[in-house]
Structure formats: structure tokens, C-alpha cells
Amino acid sequence: MLALLLLLFSSFSFIRTTLSAAPTPRYGGTFVLASPYEPIDFNPGLRSNLNFEMYPPFESLLRSTSSLELKPYLATSYSVSADGLTYTFKLVQNATWHDGVKFTSADVKFTFLSVLIPYHPLGQSFFGVITAIDTPDDYTAVFHLSQPWAALPLLISNTWSAPILPQHLLQGTNPRNNTQFNFHPVGTGAFMFKEYVKGDHSTFVKYPNYWQKGKPYIDQIVVKIMPDAESEVSAMEAGEVDYIGYQLPIADVKTLQATQGINATFKGSNGLQATTLLYFNLDHPKLKNPLVRQAFAYAINRTQISQVARLGGTSPPAVGPVSYKSAWAYDPNLQPAYPTNIDKANQLLDQAGYPKQSNGTRFTITLNLVLPAFYSGDEQIVVDNMAKVGVHVVTTVLDLATANDRMFVSRTFELGMRAIFAGPDPSITMCVTFCANQIGAGSYTNGMGYNNSKADALLKQAQSEQDQTKRRAEMLQWQSTIMTDLPVYPITDENNPLAYRTIWHNMPSNPWAVGIMNMQDVWSDQGTLPSTTTTTTAVATTTTSASATAGIDPTILAVAAIVIIVIVAGAALALRRRK
Q1: pTM above 0.85?
Q2: Less packed terminus of the chain by CB within 10 Å, N or C?
């Protein structure tokens, strides 16, 4: 009898373990994303913005989780020399480009030296320390640096700043002018480009020869162009859209959080360390006066923006240009602080030579915006705050390409509002926005025209300093300089929202606010279970964020039922024999 009880216990333990095991990924389905933008092009090697259309075809050497933990990707492993000047990457040996050509270390060398460093807006700042890349064989890339660069593994762990590009399709061309590639991208990723219908959508289909066997699970990804934020949210509620990324209107987050079948969250942008800034064009006759910029700082109420436009403080007021998410370089008591003070703002504008006219207005100035769904709350508060001191702010909303040109290239703007990304290491990334050699260098660079050699030197010192205490001191001194000169006015530290339908499992845990990086593991409840002939190599390492019983293989349930029947029959037979 004891043996029978032990058998029953072990059998039920087996059944419980089986039922609670990770569900089997299913194949098929179309993943639909809403994007407010018309794509500029599809080459992430030329851009630092977060257009969804650029990422499905491409991969990076490493990838990073939401906690900035590094994982293998096109590089299976890497090692660092004792002096920190040499990084050796071992590469996967079975990856091919979507046209069938083998991926090799030559592509890695070409990507960094011939595309990212000379053409990517972040390239020189992120990777300018790379002096050479050796390729001793097809699957080894050895990076040689001019100075230790501890941030390198994180900097290459995403396709936002370090997508690997095909040498055989770009060599000998200026990638900015290579229209064929830029609008018909070829990568090594799980999804390959199918079509782009201007004003409507882009489609990416699964690559049948993807190097991670058995993946991807999804048939295709469609990026639907939907400039109207209300339409995006309505489409998600109706089940027509599966994902809304960092451009999700903050006011709609609570609505989606209360909607069954939708997961809306502010997690997913830790690596960006985003801060919204008010940009001043320092060549403007009024804004070149520091007293005018200080008046803006005293007039604009950051706390009001955080509480009203950010759902009760989901994005806290910014202290300086560095986000609170970068703890080592952040000081909550950074000075000067510019507490809201209308009297002080009026005094500074009078002192600057702009008295109020008979109608109560000192002057009119234009604020350029993009992503109106995100910044609309900020905009109205800025307009109202500045009206209190006699400055009439007129807002204009521009498409992304036009706004980028006016703010960062031609610099034909007056005021602009954007979020900058300071991660993963602000001593490096801040140079893109503030260093003098980045003036007019491309999207999200130094659009203000700020030029301070001492500030630049502090950033450079912090980049190469090995003593973390000294690095922090240098970064705090740099931030104090920025807040004194005020080429920008920091408004809020962003916690960017995103939302997706919960039928999707294994949504990527990446910190770059682009949930469609690394989509090879994602699958849907509504897909089809793999047949017995389907390879399951990749499935064994898959984890799930969904409930444990979702998508359980019917075969497992049948086996469990048979086990129960056998146990009951055995117990009945044993009892008969005992009698």
C-alpha cells in the first residue's frame, strides 16, 4: 500500500510539473506596430532616432536586457586585454545575409570603420576610440582602442547605435546616397524587408534561413504608419494593433492599463536614460543673451509639467541634463537649480532690454515640436508659463525629417523640444549633444550651437578616467557648467511608456525603448503548435512572461490523462487482489 501511495504522489508531482512547465512556442501570426512617422529610410547605420522600421532586419554583436545585462548575439563571446585596449569577439559561424551571402568578420570591420564612425550621428562619440579592427579569420574580430573604453560592450549591444551591415552591398559607396540599400535593407536578422508603401506601412517577413534554428515564430511584422495618437490607441483597443512604443501618449497609459488583454508599462527605456530638453538656438539674436535663457528657466515650472503632463510625476522634474537613472553621474542637488520664480524671470527680461509693451508682451518666439502626442502637455504649460512674463510662445508641429533638419542640421529654429538619450554612459553620449565638434553634425547632435572648450574637456576627461570617484566629480562639474551656460533647459527625466497585447509572449526585454529589437523569440497564443518534425533547438532556451498554462501542448495533456488512468486502474487492481 505504501508503494502505491508513493507511486500516486510521484505521478501527481510529474503531472503538476508538466502542467507548470514553460509553454511551447507557437508558430505563425502577424505582429502589427503603430508608428507615427513616415520613415526617413531603413538604414540604422545612419540614424540615431528610434524609427521602428529600421530594426527588424538587423542585429548587433551583443544584446542587452532591460537591466543592461549583456547577452550573446552575432558575437558568441568576447574577451578584454588587461590594459583595456583590445577586445576580441568570437562570431557565430552559421549566419547569412538575407541575400544568402555568408556573414563574416569582414562585415564587422567594415561596419564600424567605414559606416558607423564616419556616418552615424553617434559613431565618432561612441566608437572614435577604435583605431583598427583585425580579422585573423572569418569568425574573429579584434578591436584595438586608443584608450580604455569600458562602455564598449554596452554601446555595441543594440541596433540603435551599432547595427552590423553588409560589406558586399555598401562597400565603395557613400551609404547616405545608397538609395537601393537604404530602402531595400539586407540584414542577418530574423525578419527580412518585404515592402514599403509610403504613407501606409512597411512589412517584414520571417527569414527562412535564419541562423537561430527554429526561429522566428512570427510570420511577419507590419509597421503601420498612424500619425494620429488617438487612432493608435483605438486600434489597439480593437485588437488591430499589437504594440505602441515610446511615442504612446502618456494620458492614455492608464486607460490601456485598465483594458483587459493589454499590458501598458513605463518599463523599457532604462538604457536610454532620456531627458526632455528645451533647446535654445544660441545664434538667435534674443536667445544668445544668457539673461533671456535664465528668464525662461525661472519662468517654466518643471514640477507642474511633471505632475500635469506626466500623470502625477511618472517622469520626475529634471535636475540637469543627466538622468537620475545614471546614478554615478547624477546629483539631485546640482546647482544652479532655477526654482520657479516669476518675479526673477521678469527682472532678468527687463535687464536684458526687453520691456513689456502696452499689450503686455515683450516679444514672440516659435517653439518647434515633433511627436505632438507626447509633448502636447509640456507645450501648453510652457506657453502658459512664458505668457506670465510677457513672452508669447507660438508652437508649430513638424514632421520628423523637417524637424530634424531645422533643429540639428540647418539650425533654422528658435526653440525646440526633444528628449535626448544619455545612456548607457553619459560621459560619452552627452558629447553628441553638447560638444562643439557636433554642431550641425546630424540628427540629435549639437543643434544649439553650444561651444565651450572647457566643458568639452571635462567630458573627455570623464570618458577616459579610470577612477570612478574622479569621473563623478568631472561629470558634476560639467553639468554645473551646462546649467550655468544654459544652452538647453532640462525639463523632465523620462520614463517612456509602451503597450502591447498580452497574446504575445517573450516580448523583448531590451532597454532601448524599441520593443521590436530582438523579435526572434516572440510568439502568439493564436499561433500553431510545431509539428513533430519541427526543430525545437531554440525552444529549449526560451523563457516566457505569460501564464504558465498558456499554450500547453495537447500531447502533454493527453500523456497526463493516460498517466492518471493507469494509476487509477492500478490502484483498483491492487485493491481487488488485496481483498
Answers
A1: no
A2: C
